[in-house]
Write a structure and sequence with these properties.
Layout lengths: L2 H15 L7 E7 L3 H13 L4 E7 L1 H10 L2 H5 L3 H13 L2 E6 L11 H22 L5 E5 L3 H7 L5 H15 L6 H21 L2 E7 L5 E6 L10 E2 L5 E2 L8 E3 L1 E11 L4 E3 L2 E11 L2 E9 L1 H7 L9 E6 L16 H4 L5 E5 L14 H7 L7 E5 L6 E6 L4 E6 L2 E2 L2
Parallel strand pairs: 1-2, 1-3, 3-4
Antiparallel strand pairs: 5-6, 5-17, 6-10, 7-8, 9-14, 10-12, 11-12, 12-13, 14-15, 15-16, 17-18, 18-19
Helix pairs in contact: 1-2, 5-6, 7-8
């Protein structure tokens, strides 16, 4: 891929993604797959006058070794120096960039129970630090190709060709064209306009139906609003948390989901795939789940903690989204969730509550925002999906027809 194009992409992430501020610390989380691009991105962050740019590397084969050989106690431990680092980040409020490139099957064979229990041990220790930063940080998830990921998406190609094709798909769907900044300004306006219309309806419930058997009704929080595209942190700084992004999303009311929903794309979770799965909800909770592949992992996921089986997000994405029209299955949630409509189990978003800047986490939770250590998106959109909104005035308004916007 031409360096001039990669430079444009890096500039988009630094300026429209996290919107690096003068004197700000930036943390980049990345795998070892594209060090050249990470170098370009670091340079662009410094051009935005970042004070320092810290790169934290990860490598799936090492993670597999750790899970295989370390004790559960050691895996779940959060050492004092790690707590000090977390508190330091809370104090300086860095901008965070996550570059995803992982192999969708990269942790296949890892002990699922051990992985889950290690996270359950560390989560209560880490959570207070995360709470300090909730709503304050600029953050952005973007993607670069990894060789194994590229071969998964383009299995019939040589590795070098697959990587190049994945680069092309990432850049095209991320709107990296002649003027990506302008493209994202226009895109953000469209998403905000759609959210404004949805918020004007006074939606109390969404009813999802599809030919595959999906029949699900989800209740809304009266104080919640649909959001999409550019967001604003409590500091007043705007940022785009996902590149690409096609969704208008909201946090539904905990405890108000009834019916069954079928996934329409595989889910890559914890470096493993869950395929052809479904969930049945009663009183808001997933009381029964099934999968042709990854059943144990799916069951473990919705039982990670008390809130893991409740919905944390409803996101509306048309079948005509730029990602979906590529006809590619990315095996990566950042892309697949922005291809079609999706739901998420686990943690909801406080920033979907009106005036959340002035509310505590407990106040948002009391309104109905779900709390959990996980937030896992799964895709449910298809060509036959219809979504109807029951509004506060009693009207039923079509939101989606045959997989696309009905307005």
């Amino acid at each position: 891929m031409k360096k001039t194009v990669l430079r444009q992409y890096a500039k988009l992430i630094a300026r429209m993604g996290v919107n690096v501020q003068k004197g700000q610390t930036v943390i980049i989380h990345a795998g070892l797959d594209q060090p050249e691009f990470v170098e370009i991105l670091v340079d662009e962050c410094y051009k935005c006058k970042a004070r320092e740019v810290i790169v934290e590397w990860s490598y799936q084969p090492l993670a597999k070794l750790h899970y295989r050989h370390m004790s559960l106690k050691a895996l779940g431990e959060v050492k004092e120096w790690q707590k000090a680092r977390l508190q330091h980040y809370c104090d300086v409020n860095p901008a965070r960039i996550h570059l995803t490139s992982a192999d969708p099957d990269g942790l296949k064979g890892v002990n699922v129970q051990k992985m889950a229990k290690a996270r359950q041990i560390s989560y209560p220790i880490v959570k207070p630090y995360n709470d300090q930063l909730d709503g304050k940080q600029q953050w952005c998830i973007a993607a670069v190709p990894g060789k194994a990921w590229a071969k998964k998406v383009f299995p019939g190609e040589r590795t070098s060709v697959a990587v190049e094709k994945l680069w092309e798909a990432i850049l095209a769907t991320s709107r990296v064209n002649e003027d990506p900044i302008k493209a994202w300004e226009d895109h953000n306006k469209d998403l905000h306009d759609r959210c404004a219309y949805l918020n004007s309806l006074g939606i109390e419930k969404l009813h999802y139906t599809a030919d595959n058997g999906t029949n699900l009704t989800v209740g809304m929080i009266p104080e919640a609003v649909f959001c999409g595209g550019c967001e604003t942190a409590k500091t007043g700084i705007s940022f785009n948390p996902n590149i690409p992004s096609e969704e208008c999303f909201i946090s539904p009311k905990r405890g108000e989901a009834e019916g069954i929903v079928y996934a329409t794309k595989p889910l890559s979770y914890q470096g493993q795939l869950i395929e052809n799965f479904w969930m049945r909800f009663e009183d808001g909770k997933a009381v029964e789940v099934g999968a042709e592949k990854g059943q144990e992992l799916l069951q473990q996921m919705v039982n990670m903690d008390e809130g893991a089986g409740y919905l944390g997000e409803c996101a509306l994405v048309p079948q005509t989204s730029p990602i979906n029209v590529t006809d590619l299955l990315f095996y990566n949630t950042l892309f697949d969730e922005n291809a079609v409509c999706h739901l998420a189990v686990g943690r909801g978003f406080n920033d979907t509550i009106r005036g959340y800047h002035d509310k505590t986490n407990e106040e948002c939770k009391a309104l109905g925002v779900n709390e959990s250590m996980i937030h896992v998106d799964f895709m449910i959109g298809c060509d036959s999906m219809n979504i109807d909104a029951t509004c506060a005035d009693g009207k039923v308004v079509p939101i989606f027809r045959n997989g696309n916007w009905a307005f």
